[in-house]
Fold:
Amino acid sequence: MPPLEQTVFIVEDDAAVRDSLGLLLGLQGFRTQAFSCAEDFLRVYQPSWAGCLLLDIRMQGMSGLELQKTLREQRLGLPVIIMTAHGDVATVRTALKTGAVDFLEKPVDPDALLAAIRSALDADAAMRRSAREAEGTRQRLSVLTARETQVMELVAKGCHNREIAATLGISPRTVEVHKARMMEKLQVQSVPELVRIVLRAPGPA
Structure:
């Protein structure tokens, strides 16, 4: 499967429902892949998969909520749409609190389903775009020396060269040299550009 081709992954233990959902979504141009249980999905899941997960709550073996919780604990990022014929307030609250992007009651309204899937796929695309940007930022920052990183952080906080020099115990001229090298490595031309990079920098793993 191409790693970034968005797919609607259907996890539903009712074969008739699985088939009808696959047919409906296929006719609307969506790529789908169906599983009869949560365990089968987890067994073959690849982190490179993109798209969303259309997930039934009540299934034999692992329930939909348990699968959703497992995905969250393992930091697997597919947006989840929950569907069930047994919806109640507590279940809805749990699903949404665990990160579901929508909750649909069976029989699922086709228009509501399509709207939820389009929204989930948009969210998935935005999340992956953000992850790519964060990785690009991480790679750019990795080429800085420890001193250049210190200078960058102080510049981003609005400190002037003399303030940075006093903080780091070096001369203003040395600060200028580190600053120039740092901005050249990061390929930025201005402090606002630098601040944007620092704000996008991923936190500790």
